[in-house]
Protein backbone atom coordinates (compact mmCIF):
# COMPACT_ATOMS: atom_id res chain seq x y z
CA UNK A 1 0.00 0.00 0.00
CA UNK A 2 1.41 3.40 -0.95
CA UNK A 3 1.71 6.08 1.72
CA UNK A 4 -1.27 8.35 2.11
CA UNK A 5 -1.06 11.63 0.25
CA UNK A 6 -2.01 14.96 1.77
CA UNK A 7 -4.93 16.82 0.24
CA UNK A 8 -3.37 19.84 -1.52
CA UNK A 9 -6.43 22.10 -1.14
CA UNK A 10 -6.80 24.34 1.91
CA UNK A 11 -10.40 25.27 2.64
CA UNK A 12 -9.52 27.10 5.86
CA UNK A 13 -9.79 30.84 6.46
CA UNK A 14 -6.44 32.57 6.17
CA UNK A 15 -4.57 29.52 4.86
CA UNK A 16 -2.32 30.00 1.86
CA UNK A 17 -3.90 28.15 -1.11
CA UNK A 18 -1.79 25.67 -3.12
CA UNK A 19 -2.00 28.12 -6.00
CA UNK A 20 -2.81 31.79 -5.55
CA UNK A 21 -5.15 32.29 -8.47
CA UNK A 22 -6.01 35.49 -10.33
CA UNK A 23 -4.28 38.07 -8.15
CA UNK A 24 -1.43 39.19 -10.41
CA UNK A 25 -2.76 42.75 -10.75
CA UNK A 26 -2.84 43.60 -7.07
CA UNK A 27 0.47 41.83 -6.42
CA UNK A 28 2.07 43.90 -9.19
CA UNK A 29 0.69 47.07 -7.58
CA UNK A 30 2.22 46.11 -4.27
CA UNK A 31 5.62 45.15 -5.72
CA UNK A 32 5.68 48.36 -7.73
CA UNK A 33 5.03 50.26 -4.51
CA UNK A 34 8.01 48.61 -2.83
CA UNK A 35 10.26 49.28 -5.83
CA UNK A 36 9.19 52.88 -6.35
CA UNK A 37 10.24 53.96 -2.88
CA UNK A 38 8.70 56.04 -0.10
CA UNK A 39 5.42 57.72 -0.97
CA UNK A 40 4.58 55.38 -3.89
CA UNK A 41 0.83 54.63 -4.08
CA UNK A 42 1.26 50.88 -3.56
CA UNK A 43 2.82 51.55 -0.16
CA UNK A 44 -0.48 52.59 1.35
CA UNK A 45 -3.14 50.12 0.39
CA UNK A 46 -6.66 49.25 1.48
CA UNK A 47 -7.78 45.75 0.52
CA UNK A 48 -11.52 45.11 0.72
CA UNK A 49 -13.82 42.29 -0.24
CA UNK A 50 -16.46 39.91 1.00
CA UNK A 51 -15.76 37.14 3.45
CA UNK A 52 -13.73 34.33 1.88
CA UNK A 53 -12.51 36.33 -1.10
CA UNK A 54 -8.87 36.09 -0.01
CA UNK A 55 -7.97 39.25 1.93
CA UNK A 56 -5.98 37.51 4.66
CA UNK A 57 -4.17 35.40 2.09
CA UNK A 58 -3.28 38.60 0.21
CA UNK A 59 -1.73 40.14 3.34
CA UNK A 60 0.26 36.95 3.92
CA UNK A 61 1.49 37.05 0.34
CA UNK A 62 2.53 40.71 0.72
CA UNK A 63 4.40 39.75 3.87
CA UNK A 64 6.17 36.96 2.03
CA UNK A 65 7.20 39.30 -0.79
CA UNK A 66 8.46 41.89 1.68
CA UNK A 67 10.45 39.33 3.67
CA UNK A 68 11.99 38.08 0.45
CA UNK A 69 13.43 41.58 0.17
CA UNK A 70 14.67 41.36 3.75
CA UNK A 71 12.06 43.83 4.91
CA UNK A 72 10.73 43.75 8.44
CA UNK A 73 7.08 42.65 8.55
CA UNK A 74 4.67 43.27 11.39
CA UNK A 75 1.20 41.82 10.91
CA UNK A 76 -1.68 42.39 13.29
CA UNK A 77 -5.38 41.64 13.35
CA UNK A 78 -7.69 44.35 14.62
CA UNK A 79 -9.39 43.85 17.96
CA UNK A 80 -9.27 45.68 21.28
CA UNK A 81 -5.84 47.03 22.09
CA UNK A 82 -4.58 46.93 18.50
CA UNK A 83 -2.25 49.94 18.71
CA UNK A 84 -0.83 48.78 22.03
CA UNK A 85 -0.15 45.30 20.68
CA UNK A 86 1.49 46.81 17.64
CA UNK A 87 3.68 48.95 19.86
CA UNK A 88 4.71 45.91 21.86
CA UNK A 89 5.74 44.17 18.68
CA UNK A 90 8.24 46.97 18.07
CA UNK A 91 9.43 47.13 21.63
CA UNK A 92 9.40 43.55 22.83
CA UNK A 93 10.31 44.52 26.40
CA UNK A 94 8.24 46.87 28.49
CA UNK A 95 7.46 50.00 26.50
CA UNK A 96 7.82 52.12 29.64
CA UNK A 97 11.48 51.23 29.95
CA UNK A 98 12.47 51.55 26.34
CA UNK A 99 10.72 54.65 25.16
CA UNK A 100 11.79 58.16 25.91
CA UNK A 101 8.17 59.26 26.10
CA UNK A 102 7.06 58.53 29.60
CA UNK A 103 3.86 56.52 29.65
CA UNK A 104 1.08 57.50 32.00
CA UNK A 105 0.09 55.16 34.77
CA UNK A 106 -3.33 53.65 34.58
CA UNK A 107 -4.71 53.27 38.06
CA UNK A 108 -6.42 49.94 38.05
CA UNK A 109 -7.10 49.29 41.72
CA UNK A 110 -8.31 52.38 43.55
CA UNK A 111 -7.73 50.88 46.96
CA UNK A 112 -4.01 51.17 46.42
CA UNK A 113 -3.34 47.46 46.54
CA UNK A 114 -2.50 47.66 42.88
CA UNK A 115 -1.28 50.63 40.98
CA UNK A 116 -2.13 48.82 37.81
CA UNK A 117 0.29 48.11 35.04
CA UNK A 118 2.04 50.80 33.12
CA UNK A 119 0.17 51.56 29.95
CA UNK A 120 0.55 54.10 27.21
CA UNK A 121 -2.24 56.64 27.21
CA UNK A 122 -4.22 56.94 24.01
CA UNK A 123 -3.11 60.55 23.40
CA UNK A 124 0.47 59.46 23.58
CA UNK A 125 -0.02 56.49 21.31
CA UNK A 126 0.66 58.24 17.97
CA UNK A 127 3.96 59.62 19.21
CA UNK A 128 5.19 56.44 20.81
CA UNK A 129 4.21 54.27 17.89
CA UNK A 130 5.91 56.67 15.54
CA UNK A 131 9.04 56.58 17.65
CA UNK A 132 9.08 52.84 17.94
CA UNK A 133 8.53 52.37 14.21
CA UNK A 134 11.18 55.00 13.53
CA UNK A 135 13.71 53.06 15.57
CA UNK A 136 12.94 49.84 13.79
CA UNK A 137 13.31 51.73 10.50
CA UNK A 138 16.70 53.12 11.57
CA UNK A 139 17.96 49.54 11.74
CA UNK A 140 16.19 48.31 8.60
CA UNK A 141 17.17 51.26 6.44
CA UNK A 142 20.82 50.79 7.29
CA UNK A 143 20.58 47.57 5.35
CA UNK A 144 18.52 49.16 2.59
CA UNK A 145 15.37 47.42 3.75
CA UNK A 146 12.01 48.74 4.86
CA UNK A 147 9.10 47.99 7.15
CA UNK A 148 5.72 46.56 6.15
CA UNK A 149 2.81 46.80 8.56
CA UNK A 150 -0.40 44.94 7.82
CA UNK A 151 -3.66 45.13 9.74
CA UNK A 152 -6.32 42.52 9.01
CA UNK A 153 -10.03 42.76 9.88
CA UNK A 154 -9.64 46.55 9.97
CA UNK A 155 -13.44 46.97 10.08
CA UNK A 156 -13.26 45.81 13.72
CA UNK A 157 -10.59 48.29 14.80
CA UNK A 158 -11.39 50.90 17.43
CA UNK A 159 -11.27 54.40 16.00
CA UNK A 160 -8.53 55.58 18.38
CA UNK A 161 -6.35 52.65 17.37
CA UNK A 162 -6.79 53.48 13.68
CA UNK A 163 -6.03 57.13 14.42
CA UNK A 164 -2.86 56.18 16.31
CA UNK A 165 -1.57 53.93 13.56
CA UNK A 166 -2.55 56.25 10.71
CA UNK A 167 -0.90 59.22 12.41
CA UNK A 168 2.33 57.33 12.98
CA UNK A 169 2.45 56.01 9.42
CA UNK A 170 1.55 59.41 8.01
CA UNK A 171 4.45 61.13 9.77
CA UNK A 172 6.93 58.47 8.79
CA UNK A 173 5.73 58.64 5.19
CA UNK A 174 6.14 62.40 5.21
CA UNK A 175 9.70 61.91 6.46
CA UNK A 176 10.28 59.66 3.44
CA UNK A 177 10.94 56.65 5.61
CA UNK A 178 10.96 53.25 3.97
CA UNK A 179 7.55 52.14 5.20
CA UNK A 180 4.48 50.42 3.72
CA UNK A 181 1.09 50.04 5.36
CA UNK A 182 -1.65 47.72 4.11
CA UNK A 183 -4.98 47.26 5.85
CA UNK A 184 -7.66 44.81 4.88
CA UNK A 185 -11.26 44.27 5.85
CA UNK A 186 -14.87 43.94 4.87
CA UNK A 187 -16.13 46.60 2.45
CA UNK A 188 -17.81 48.39 5.36
CA UNK A 189 -14.43 49.93 6.30
CA UNK A 190 -14.87 52.26 3.38
CA UNK A 191 -17.86 53.93 5.01
CA UNK A 192 -16.61 53.39 8.55
CA UNK A 193 -13.07 54.79 8.33
CA UNK A 194 -12.65 56.53 5.07
CA UNK A 195 -15.33 59.15 5.71
CA UNK A 196 -13.75 60.09 9.03
CA UNK A 197 -12.08 63.53 8.95
CA UNK A 198 -9.34 62.52 11.35
CA UNK A 199 -8.49 59.63 9.08
CA UNK A 200 -8.08 61.62 5.84
CA UNK A 201 -4.64 60.11 5.46
CA UNK A 202 -6.15 56.65 5.06
CA UNK A 203 -8.48 57.95 2.37
CA UNK A 204 -5.43 58.32 0.15
CA UNK A 205 -4.84 54.60 0.36
CA UNK A 206 -4.87 52.77 -2.95
CA UNK A 207 -8.13 50.84 -2.86
CA UNK A 208 -8.03 47.22 -4.00
CA UNK A 209 -11.40 45.52 -4.16
CA UNK A 210 -10.91 41.80 -4.34
CA UNK A 211 -13.50 40.04 -6.45
CA UNK A 212 -14.20 36.75 -8.14
CA UNK A 213 -11.54 34.87 -10.09
CA UNK A 214 -12.09 34.38 -13.84
CA UNK A 215 -13.21 30.79 -14.48
CA UNK A 216 -10.48 29.98 -16.99
CA UNK A 217 -7.90 30.70 -14.28
CA UNK A 218 -9.83 28.48 -11.88
CA UNK A 219 -9.79 25.72 -14.49
CA UNK A 220 -6.00 25.96 -14.96
CA UNK A 221 -5.47 25.97 -11.20
CA UNK A 222 -7.58 22.83 -10.76
CA UNK A 223 -5.82 20.98 -13.57
CA UNK A 224 -2.38 21.87 -12.20
CA UNK A 225 -3.11 21.22 -8.54
CA UNK A 226 -4.76 17.85 -9.17
CA UNK A 227 -2.06 16.83 -11.61
CA UNK A 228 0.73 17.67 -9.18
CA UNK A 229 -0.82 15.31 -6.67
CA UNK A 230 -1.12 12.53 -9.24
CA UNK A 231 -4.82 12.82 -10.13
CA UNK A 232 -6.16 13.74 -13.55
CA UNK A 233 -9.22 15.96 -13.79
CA UNK A 234 -10.74 16.78 -17.17
CA UNK A 235 -13.92 16.66 -19.26
CA UNK A 236 -17.28 16.96 -17.53
CA UNK A 237 -15.83 16.42 -14.06
CA UNK A 238 -13.56 19.42 -14.54
CA UNK A 239 -16.38 21.51 -15.97
CA UNK A 240 -18.61 20.69 -13.00
CA UNK A 241 -15.88 21.57 -10.53
CA UNK A 242 -15.03 24.87 -12.19
CA UNK A 243 -18.65 25.98 -12.62
CA UNK A 244 -19.49 25.14 -9.00
CA UNK A 245 -16.87 27.59 -7.68
CA UNK A 246 -18.48 30.58 -9.41
CA UNK A 247 -14.97 32.03 -9.17
CA UNK A 248 -15.29 32.51 -5.41
CA UNK A 249 -11.87 31.79 -3.84
CA UNK A 250 -13.10 30.01 -0.73
CA UNK A 251 -15.31 27.82 -2.89
CA UNK A 252 -12.30 26.98 -5.10
CA UNK A 253 -10.62 25.43 -2.06
CA UNK A 254 -13.81 23.75 -0.81
CA UNK A 255 -14.68 22.19 -4.16
CA UNK A 256 -11.08 21.15 -4.81
CA UNK A 257 -10.72 19.69 -1.35
CA UNK A 258 -13.89 17.60 -1.38
CA UNK A 259 -13.54 16.33 -4.93
CA UNK A 260 -9.89 15.43 -4.34
CA UNK A 261 -10.80 13.63 -1.12
CA UNK A 262 -13.60 11.53 -2.58
CA UNK A 263 -11.64 10.68 -5.68
CA UNK A 264 -8.51 9.77 -3.74
CA UNK A 265 -10.37 7.59 -1.23
CA UNK A 266 -12.21 5.75 -3.96
CA UNK A 267 -9.08 4.95 -5.93
CA UNK A 268 -6.35 4.79 -3.35
CA UNK A 269 -6.38 1.05 -2.85
CA UNK A 270 -8.25 0.15 -6.01
CA UNK A 271 -6.99 -1.09 -9.33
CA UNK A 272 -7.25 2.31 -10.97
CA UNK A 273 -3.89 3.25 -9.52
CA UNK A 274 -2.14 1.23 -12.23
CA UNK A 275 -2.86 3.70 -14.98
CA UNK A 276 -3.07 6.71 -12.70
CA UNK A 277 -6.00 8.17 -10.84
CA UNK A 278 -8.65 10.33 -12.39
CA UNK A 279 -11.72 12.18 -11.16
CA UNK A 280 -15.01 10.61 -12.24
CA UNK A 281 -18.19 12.57 -12.81
CA UNK A 282 -19.65 10.97 -9.69
CA UNK A 283 -16.65 12.11 -7.65
CA UNK A 284 -17.17 15.64 -8.93
CA UNK A 285 -20.90 15.64 -8.22
CA UNK A 286 -20.49 14.33 -4.70
CA UNK A 287 -17.56 16.63 -3.98
CA UNK A 288 -19.49 19.71 -5.09
CA UNK A 289 -22.41 18.74 -2.90
CA UNK A 290 -20.16 18.31 0.17
CA UNK A 291 -18.45 21.61 -0.59
CA UNK A 292 -21.82 23.37 -0.70
CA UNK A 293 -22.90 22.18 2.70
CA UNK A 294 -19.62 23.34 4.22
CA UNK A 295 -19.97 26.73 2.53
CA UNK A 296 -23.17 27.40 4.46
CA UNK A 297 -21.55 26.90 7.87
CA UNK A 298 -18.37 28.70 6.98
CA UNK A 299 -19.66 31.69 5.03
CA UNK A 300 -23.42 32.18 4.85
CA UNK A 301 -24.14 31.63 8.53
CA UNK A 302 -21.47 34.08 9.81
CA UNK A 303 -22.36 36.60 7.10
CA UNK A 304 -26.04 36.64 8.12
CA UNK A 305 -25.12 36.80 11.82
CA UNK A 306 -23.42 40.12 11.11
CA UNK A 307 -26.54 41.67 9.54
CA UNK A 308 -29.48 43.47 11.12
CA UNK A 309 -32.99 41.94 11.23
CA UNK A 310 -34.22 44.22 8.43
CA UNK A 311 -31.18 43.39 6.28
CA UNK A 312 -32.15 39.74 6.63
CA UNK A 313 -35.77 40.46 5.80
CA UNK A 314 -34.60 42.23 2.66
CA UNK A 315 -32.50 39.22 1.65
CA UNK A 316 -35.34 36.79 2.32
CA UNK A 317 -37.58 38.89 0.08
CA UNK A 318 -34.94 38.66 -2.65
CA UNK A 319 -34.54 34.91 -2.24
CA UNK A 320 -38.11 34.41 -3.47
CA UNK A 321 -36.90 35.21 -6.98
CA UNK A 322 -34.88 32.81 -9.12
CA UNK A 323 -32.77 35.62 -10.58
CA UNK A 324 -32.27 39.39 -10.07
CA UNK A 325 -35.01 41.05 -8.00
CA UNK A 326 -36.78 44.31 -8.74
CA UNK A 327 -36.27 46.72 -5.84
CA UNK A 328 -39.90 47.84 -5.93
CA UNK A 329 -41.11 44.23 -5.71
CA UNK A 330 -38.86 43.69 -2.69
CA UNK A 331 -40.31 46.77 -0.98
CA UNK A 332 -43.79 45.37 -1.66
CA UNK A 333 -42.88 42.01 -0.18
CA UNK A 334 -41.47 43.74 2.88
CA UNK A 335 -44.65 45.79 3.20
CA UNK A 336 -42.62 49.03 3.12
CA UNK A 337 -42.22 51.95 0.74
CA UNK A 338 -39.38 51.96 -1.77
CA UNK A 339 -37.48 54.72 0.07
CA UNK A 340 -37.33 52.65 3.24
CA UNK A 341 -36.34 49.48 1.41
CA UNK A 342 -33.62 51.35 -0.45
CA UNK A 343 -31.83 52.22 2.78
CA UNK A 344 -31.26 48.49 3.23
CA UNK A 345 -30.48 48.00 -0.42
CA UNK A 346 -27.62 50.52 -0.07
CA UNK A 347 -26.36 48.94 3.16
CA UNK A 348 -26.31 45.50 1.62
CA UNK A 349 -24.55 46.74 -1.51
CA UNK A 350 -21.90 48.48 0.65
CA UNK A 351 -21.37 45.24 2.52
CA UNK A 352 -21.02 43.43 -0.84
CA UNK A 353 -23.76 40.97 0.06
CA UNK A 354 -25.83 42.03 -2.96
CA UNK A 355 -25.03 44.00 -6.10
CA UNK A 356 -26.80 46.49 -8.29
CA UNK A 357 -27.36 44.91 -11.70
CA UNK A 358 -29.07 47.95 -13.25
CA UNK A 359 -32.65 48.60 -14.37
CA UNK A 360 -33.79 48.85 -10.75
CA UNK A 361 -32.67 45.32 -10.00
CA UNK A 362 -30.35 43.74 -7.47
CA UNK A 363 -28.82 40.28 -7.25
CA UNK A 364 -26.86 38.30 -4.68
CA UNK A 365 -23.11 38.95 -4.62
CA UNK A 366 -22.20 35.91 -2.51
CA UNK A 367 -22.44 32.59 -4.34
CA UNK A 368 -25.19 30.22 -3.27
CA UNK A 369 -26.62 32.68 -0.74
CA UNK A 370 -30.04 32.47 -2.38
CA UNK A 371 -30.07 28.73 -1.97
CA UNK A 372 -28.93 28.97 1.65
CA UNK A 373 -31.61 31.57 2.46
CA UNK A 374 -34.30 29.36 0.96
CA UNK A 375 -33.14 26.29 2.84
CA UNK A 376 -32.90 28.14 6.14
CA UNK A 377 -35.71 30.66 5.61
CA UNK A 378 -37.81 29.59 8.59
CA UNK A 379 -34.92 29.85 11.01
CA UNK A 380 -33.60 33.13 9.61
CA UNK A 381 -37.07 34.70 9.69
CA UNK A 382 -37.39 33.69 13.32
CA UNK A 383 -34.04 35.20 14.28
CA UNK A 384 -34.92 38.37 12.34
CA UNK A 385 -38.12 38.70 14.36
CA UNK A 386 -36.30 38.13 17.63
CA UNK A 387 -34.65 41.44 16.82
CA UNK A 388 -31.27 39.82 16.68
N1 LIG B 1 -6.42 33.87 -4.99
C1 LIG B 1 -6.82 32.71 -4.43
N2 LIG B 1 -6.76 31.55 -5.12
C2 LIG B 1 -7.16 30.39 -4.57
N3 LIG B 1 -7.62 30.28 -3.33
C3 LIG B 1 -7.70 31.39 -2.58
C4 LIG B 1 -7.31 32.65 -3.09
N4 LIG B 1 -7.49 33.58 -2.13
C5 LIG B 1 -7.99 32.92 -1.07
N5 LIG B 1 -8.11 31.61 -1.31
C6 LIG B 1 -8.65 30.61 -0.37
O1 LIG B 1 -9.93 31.09 0.04
C7 LIG B 1 -10.12 30.90 1.43
C8 LIG B 1 -10.42 32.22 2.09
O2 LIG B 1 -9.28 33.08 2.06
P1 LIG B 1 -9.08 34.21 3.17
O3 LIG B 1 -7.81 34.93 2.86
O4 LIG B 1 -9.22 33.63 4.52
O5 LIG B 1 -10.34 35.16 2.85
P2 LIG B 1 -10.82 36.46 3.65
O6 LIG B 1 -9.70 36.88 4.55
O7 LIG B 1 -11.12 37.47 2.58
O8 LIG B 1 -12.06 36.07 4.39
C9 LIG B 1 -8.88 30.18 1.95
O9 LIG B 1 -9.15 28.81 1.99
C10 LIG B 1 -7.82 30.48 0.91
O10 LIG B 1 -6.89 29.44 0.81
MG1 LIG C 1 -9.62 37.05 6.60
UniProtKB/TrEMBL annotation:
Pfam families: AAA_16. Keywords: ATP-binding, Nucleotide-binding. Residues 20-181 form the Orc1-like AAA ATPase domain. GO terms for molecular function: ATP binding. This is ATP-binding protein. The keyword rRNA-binding does not apply. The lineage of its organism: Bacteria, Bacillati, Actinomycetota, Actinomycetes, Bifidobacteriales. The keyword Kinase does not apply. PANTHER family: ATPASE DOMAIN-CONTAINING PROTEIN, DNA-BINDING PROTEIN-RELATED.
Amino acid sequence: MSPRKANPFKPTAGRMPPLLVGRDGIIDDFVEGLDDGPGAPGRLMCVTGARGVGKTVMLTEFGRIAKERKWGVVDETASDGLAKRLLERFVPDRPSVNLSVKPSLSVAGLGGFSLGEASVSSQRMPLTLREAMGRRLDVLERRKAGLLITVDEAQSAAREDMVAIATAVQHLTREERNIAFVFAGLPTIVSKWLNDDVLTFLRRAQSERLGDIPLDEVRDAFVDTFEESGIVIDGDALRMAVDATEGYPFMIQLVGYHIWRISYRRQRDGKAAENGMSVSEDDAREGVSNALSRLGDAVHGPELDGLSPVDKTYLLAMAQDDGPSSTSTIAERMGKDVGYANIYRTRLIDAQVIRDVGYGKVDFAIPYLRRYLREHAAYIRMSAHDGR
